[in-house]
Design goal:
Elements (H helix, E strand, L loop, with lengths): L2 E5 L3 H14 L4 E5 L2 H10 L4 E5 L7 H11 L5 E5 L4 H9 L4 E4 L4 H31 L7 H13 L6 E4 L6 H10 L8 E5 L8 H6 L16 H4 L4 E5 L6 H13 L1 E3 L6 E3 L3 E6 L3 H6 L5 H7 L2 E4 L10 H16 L5 E2 L1 H8 L6 H15 L3 E2 L1 H7 L3
Parallel strand pairs: 1-2, 1-3, 3-4, 4-5, 6-11, 6-12, 7-8, 8-11, 13-14
Antiparallel strand pairs: 9-10
Helix pairs in contact: 2-3, 10-12, 13-15, 14-16
């Protein structure tokens, strides 16, 4: 059910607007306010999906209501209504964040279309917020060990800049979590975060994947296609497992970093891109450089800031926190009650050799939650956590 507020000092107009909107959809809950002051108070105390607000009103005019309401609840779409078809007022209203501006008397179809569009947009904003919360929760950094505290501190300093970051560490340690945190805390967070697993893409396709291609540039290229760098424009691209990238693709990435432009495969036309690059690998790139598998000039372009993610065996003090975090996460995913772990069970898990790092720990926690008792015991760990 959508909740709509009409702020209008003329009772007759309020009644007409309410009748039109209510008849359009009987699930709409329409409330009224007779002036701007009352309307703003109602917005403050209640959650509305849409506000229709007159401009010329006593006590507080509509422009002031708009400005103050947007500061209180920025996501509410507000449609301004005025009997004066003044273009300057309309422009001012839109600059202050109005969803739309309608002149009196309102055209019926235009009014109803605006109401539908505004409610659709509100629903989309809410869905995006929920999704962002889920994403940020998924990529939450858990732990208060010295190593993790140091990484968090580095992220706080580095994220607001456009400095390139190179993340190293064994498989399963959470390098992608560091990359997502860097993006979420950056000025680019409203832009896209594009991930590329360089190890998962065949070497003959990596250039097309990163830079796109034009129709006919190779067998199977049936139409023009944008690459990941274009998709990440004004945002962040995360090149995971970059140590597995072919040398020819490395040369193109180097050019993109040097000149902020790319060319699609099969084209000589340059495309400007504004992208922050974060890269990661589990390989020793200095050895790869010596072996001729990785370009030294590219390494130095990427490694402006170095962040090393430690193996789980190097931060065992974080294991109790991680167990609790995963237990809550898994219970939410499965729609079940959260299971607790006994002190002995946690101590036993802390002493395991976690060669698969955090990824392995999560799998073990999930297995124990599925197979173990209401409280996971030391015996459950011995039975079900063995490798």
């Amino acid at each position: 059910m959508s909740k709509i507020l009409i702020i209008e000092d003329e009772a007759a107009i309020r009644r007409v607007l309410k009748k039109i909107i209510s008849e359009e959809n009987d699930s709409y809950q329409v409330e009224e306010a007779e002036d701007g002051l009352i309307g703003l108070e109602m917005i403050t105390k209640s959650d509305y999906d849409l506000v229709l607000c007159d401009i010329k009103m006593p006590k507080m005019d509509g422009m002031e209501v708009l400005e103050k309401a947007k500061k209180i609840k920025s996501e509410i779409p507000i449609v301004m209504i005025s009997g004066h078809g003044d273009l300057d007022i309309a422009v001012s209203a839109m600059r202050l964040g109005a969803f739309d501006y309608i002149s009196k008397p309102p055209d019926l179809n235009r009014l109803l279309n605006t109401v539908r569009n505004a409610l659709d947009r509100k629903e989309l904003v809410v869905e995006n917020k929920i999704l962002k919360k889920k994403v940020s929760k998924k990529y939450e950094m858990v732990g208060d060990s010295g190593a993790i505290s140091h990484i968090k501190s580095m992220i706080e300093k580095v994220a607001p800049t456009d400095a390139r970051v190179f993340i190293t560490g064994p498989n399963g340690t959470g390098k992608e979590i560091v990359a997502h945190w860097l993006h979420e805390k950056s000025e680019r967070r409203k832009g896209p975060m594009i991930e590329v697993n360089c190890a998962a893409i065949p070497s003959e396709l990596i250039e097309s994947e990163l830079f796109g291609h034009v129709k006919g540039s190779f067998t199977g290229a049936n139409k023009d296609r944008a690459g990941k760098f274009e998709a990440a424009n004004r945002g962040t691209i995360f090149l995971d497992e970059i140590g597995d990238m072919s040398l020819s693709a490395q040369a193109k990435v180097l050019r993109a970093l040097q000149e902020n432009k790319i060319a699609r495969v099969g084209s000589d036309k340059d495309i400007k891109v504004d992208v922050r690059v974060i890269a990661a690998t589990n390989k020793d790139l200095k050895k790869e450089i010596e072996a001729g598998n990785f370009r030294e000039d590219l390494y130095h372009r990427l490694a402006v800031i170095l962040i090393k993610v430690p193996a789980l065996n190097e931060r065992r003090e974080d294991i109790p926190l991680l167990i609790n975090f995963f237990a809550q996460q898994i219970a939410a995913e499965q729609g079940t009650a959260i299971k607790s772990f006994s002190k002995k069970a946690i101590e036993l898990l802390q002493n395991y050799d976690w060669t698969g790092n955090i990824r392995e720990l999560r799998n073990v926690v999930e297995r124990l939650i599925i197979l173990g008792e209401k409280e996971i015991s030391e015996n459950d760990v011995k039975l079900f956590a063995s490798k």
